[in-house]
Amino acid sequence: MHLAKRDPVSRVLVVEDSPAQAREMQELLEEAGYLAESVHDGDGALARLHAVPPDIIVTDLVMAGMSGLDLIEAVRRDFASVPIVLVTAYGSERIAGQALRAGAAGYVPKRDVPEDLVPTLKSILDIALGRSAQRKALGCLTRMEAVFSLENDTSLVAPLVRHLEEILASTRFCDPSDLIHVGVALREALVNAIERGNLEIGRDRHEDADLSRRDLIERRLHESPYRDRHVYLTARLSPNEVSYVIRDEGPGFDLATFPQPEESDEYSWKRGRGLHLIRAFMDEVSQEEGRNALTLVKRRDLSPAHA
Question: Of the four, 54, 139, 189, 253, which is 20 to 30 A from 294 by CA?
Fold first, then answer.
């Protein structure tokens, strides 16, 4: 008898000094199929990292001793391939912006933990895990331009992002932490282009108020003009820069109306969460090709430490 091969279980380390909140997050993660454990401070997290490195870390921002920001910086320095998700309390949105720039791969407000923690971790792990043996062959690549046309199917996003990550990894374009950041930014931009751009989900909060977000997405996938639209991705890689132009066929939006992460209040973070992640993780974000096209640029770090 042949047994089906099971995917490995992802290990999650929760860093939280409140026993009740640590237990809540650990139970959520275990119910979702993750192998989760918790420690109560940053020193304990670093000790576990040296003993049994997890696949991803979830950390509180405010803790006794080492803060969440301090932990993010320490992990990026010594364990750059392990992504971190920051859990923030009300009123700490600006510090969340600092954390994203310091190296966090995502954030979840504490009030949204029951709904958003597991999906956030899943999306990041989909990008961070699964490096393949293609890197050796792709290491010969020095310049590339590729154009992709996607239907409104978000299940295509993760494998496409993995493919683009493999290209960057093989050319040693950036370190593992920045590689995860580029992947998260790409995922956010592509999903937003499909859902907010082509399907126009969330553009009018009063329209179809009786439908859930999932039901509205499902309906518009079969309605004209939404179902006929595509998302186009142009990726260009040169020795010192990679750029991604993501264009949808929706009505577009004005990038200038969204403040930078460190200048945003709670409402702005909730309204433009994906865009804040993109801006925090990429060196340049613009709308040079129009209101429904976003250009993301990442430049190679040429400092001696990354040479």
Answer: 139
